[in-house]
Amino acid sequence: MAVKRVSPKEADQLMKEEGYVYLDVRSIPEFDAGHPAGAYNVPLLHQAPSGMRPNGEFMPVVTAVFPKESKLVLGCRSGNRSLRAAEALLSAGYADVVDQRAGFGGARNPFGQVEEPGWQDSGLPTALEAEPGRAYEALLARKNG
User: Across residues 59-78, what is the average pLDDT?
Assistant: First the structure.
């Protein structure tokens, strides 16, 4: 099953009009530096001294927090991690999952030029603080609680 991919503005519209929630799959430091307002954070990868490493708790946390009938918009920095996460969720039985193209920071070509503006450059609402219960630590605690 192919992942449906939408623009940042289409993602915002799905959230406002159809009850989708934004699941940011970037690392905790990336999320803390700015994210779509109201987003949940479950990193697909964690930052480590040697680079990015897989988060073995990604799927267990998502399935503990979001029922399979949840409507999810997945986003990351540029659209690569969120596409991988969306494919994994679809394979796990989630049906209403869409990937937000261009992520938070925009899709870039090999020369670093923006090819498609991301959430932030599209002028959509952003935040620096997670809403209560939506930061990764809180979501991980719900899985373990």
Answer: 97
